[in-house]
């Protein structure tokens, strides 16, 4: 892949080899001449909605305070030391979606969202660390970042947000619009606004193994098949009625030992799990949908694209979209994997789709998962 200003002249391969998960990278003018994708007022409007996650963090009189959204009333923009964080902006805005997708050299299964923070002078979330990698793109105004590779990640007690007990910064940078800072997981950092500023965080997801394990067992509960019922035709009279007998135990153990999972079970689980929309995501189905015939005609002319909110993944003969999985024919594979990778299909591809795929596309259109292009 080619070198890009986004990664400071590095190819994605080189960035991944030398920096990803390893060490910070400051990229001056990653996006030269960058201007904010939305106004402060538009962001404030998003924070007032109940289908968008947001947080207001204030540090007035040296006291940390956090309020979860929806946030109708914000402090005055003339007052210093507060910040507003709005999560998942990419789900609601085309330009934010396009910005996030510039980071698709990292797989969709790992890419999380675009968060926008607005801060007045001195505002920030305090010294902390995150469990995930992050790219911090300065969008408007200036922000001073202090960062450090400290091992002591203990936090202050009784705080409404994560604040490091003993922050020891080793480097300091002032970021201007278009500059970007990459930080690996668990790297201590503190960003403070110098005057009014806006910072965009490109965040990643990394599910914990515990979370995956619990979700996998739930998934398996729906798919195990153990016919029959406990029986003890050879039961002998005993002296200890409260005891669970060894014969009962071994019979049940033999049955439970039949619960097995295959590589295919894991694939289907993982695809469904990683493509599942977050709890507050609601799709926007078309208000007056076209008939299947009109949809096929319009799709065949203009093509279709995945909705901003749609997560579509694939592995082998399985395609996953928004938490559902489909086993696909070899003949349909090329078209569906193109849709997942390119997030769109042109008109000629749509018109060549099989009957099954045409039907699936129509259902996804009715659900608001795909749109006509
Ligand atoms: C911010 O944009 O103020 C917070 C981003 C972060 O430190 O993770
Ligand atoms: Co952070």
Number of helices: 10
Low-confidence stretches: none
- What portion of residues belong to β-strands? 15-25%
**Which ligands, by name, code or SMILES, are bound?**
succinic acid, cobalt (II) ion
Average pLDDT confidence is 96
Sheet/helix structural class: alpha+beta
CATH homologous superfamily grouping of the largest domain: Cupin
Plain-language structure description:
- The protein is α+β, with helices and mostly antiparallel strands and 373 residues long.
- Strand 11 (312-315) and strand 12 form a beta hairpin.
- Helix 4 packs across helix 6.
- The longest helix is centred in the middle third of the chain and has 15 residues, at 209-223.
- The strands form three sheets. Strands 1, 2, 3, 4, 5, 6, 7, 8 and 9 form a nine-stranded antiparallel sheet that branches. It has a three-stranded antiparallel sheet with strand order 14-10-15.
- The protein folds into two domains: 5-204, Sandwich (Jelly Rolls), CATH 2.60.120.650; 208-222 and 260-373, 3-Layer(aba) Sandwich (Malonyl-Coenzyme A Acyl Carrier Protein, domain 2), CATH 3.40.366.
- It is globular.
- It contains ten helices and 15 strands.
- It starts with 11 loop residues before the first helix and ends with a strand.
- The model has no long low-confidence stretch (mean pLDDT 96).
- Bound molecules: succinic acid and cobalt (II) ion.
């Amino acid at each position: 892949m080619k070198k890009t200003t986004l990664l400071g002249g590095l190819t994605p391969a080189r960035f991944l080899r030398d920096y990803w998960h390893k060490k910070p990278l400051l990229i001056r003018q990653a996006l030269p001449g960058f201007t904010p994708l939305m106004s402060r007022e538009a962001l404030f409007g998003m924070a007032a909605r109940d289908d968008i996650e947001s947080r207001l963090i204030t540090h007035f009189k040296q006291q940390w305070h956090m309020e979860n959204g929806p946030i109708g009333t914000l402090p005055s923009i003339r007052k210093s030391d507060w910040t507003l964080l709005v999560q998942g902006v990419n789900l609601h805005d085309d330009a934010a979606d396009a910005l996030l997708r510039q980071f698709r050299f990292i797989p969709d299964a790992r890419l999380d969202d675009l968060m926008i923070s607005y801060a007045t002078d001195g505002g920030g979330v305090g010294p902390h660390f995150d469990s995930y990698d992050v790219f911090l793109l300065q969008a408007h105004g200036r922000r001073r970042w202090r960062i450090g590779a400290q091992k002591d990640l203990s936090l202050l007690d009784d705080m409404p947000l994560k604040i490091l007990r003993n922050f020891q910064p080793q480097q300091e940078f002032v970021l201007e619009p278009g500059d970007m800072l990459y930080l690996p997981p668990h790297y201590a950092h503190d960003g403070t606004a110098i005057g009014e500023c806006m910072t965009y965080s490109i965040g990643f997801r990394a599910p914990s193994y515990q979370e995956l394990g619990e979700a996998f067992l739930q998934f398996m509960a729906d798919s195990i098949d153990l016919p029959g019922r406990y029986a003890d035709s050879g039961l002998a009279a005993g002296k200890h009625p409260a005891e669970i007998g060894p014969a009962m135990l071994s019979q049940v153990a033999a049955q439970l030992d039949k619960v097995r999972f295959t590589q295919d079970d894991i694939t289907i689980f993982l695809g469904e799990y990683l493509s599942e929309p977050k709890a507050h995501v609601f799709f926007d189905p078309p208000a007056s949908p076209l008939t299947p015939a009109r949809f096929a005609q319009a799709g065949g002319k203009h093509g279709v694209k995945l909705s901003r909110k749609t997560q579509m993944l694939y592995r082998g003969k399985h395609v996953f979209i928004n938490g559902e999985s489909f086993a696909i024919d070899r003949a349909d594979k090329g078209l569906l994997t193109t849709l997942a990778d390119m997030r769109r299909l042109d008109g000629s591809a749509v018109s060549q789709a099989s009957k099954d795929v045409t039907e699936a596309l129509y259902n996804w259109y009715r659900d608001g998962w795909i749109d006509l292009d």
